[in-house]
Automatic annotation (TrEMBL):
<protein>
    <recommendedName>
        <fullName>RES domain-containing protein</fullName>
    </recommendedName>
</protein>
<feature type="domain" description="RES">
    <location>
        <begin position="18"/>
        <end position="143"/>
    </location>
</feature>
<dbReference type="Pfam" id="PF08808">
    <property type="entry name" value="RES"/>
</dbReference>
<dbReference type="InterPro" id="IPR014914">
    <property type="entry name" value="RES_dom"/>
</dbReference>
Amino acid sequence: MSKVFAYRLVKSKFAQDAFTGDGARIYGGRWNNKGSPCVYCAGSESLAILEIFVHLEDYAILPNYTLFQIELPKSEINYLKPELLPHSWQDQPAPPETADIGDQWLKHCESLILAVPSVIVPREYNYILNPLHKGFAKVVKKAKVLDFSFDTRLAK
């Protein structure tokens, strides 16, 4: 079975809850509405950094992050077809249509992982994991913490 690596960057104080889906459930996101738990991951370390960086208001907290790497079973990834993306999928703030797509996928629980294009780098993928899927616990229990530090030049 072939694997895909994904990366999750979280504030260190929330590292123990990195794979609960609670943050997305409480706050919602581009691919889910409030009330729908899921776990957002990036397809590369650099994309994980960019996804956090674009939302930061205080760069002083950059050193307080923990980076996780997980292996995703390729057979469990459902790639969102580009023709299913609404024309406004990259808009800021995120349009409700993208959250509705994610919520429907989460609700039906047909696959563990939904691969969606990154708004920042559209040719790269972010991975949405469904914590209600039967295979979720097996995948996230193998998550590894990687050594990580932000290059201070990013905050200039």
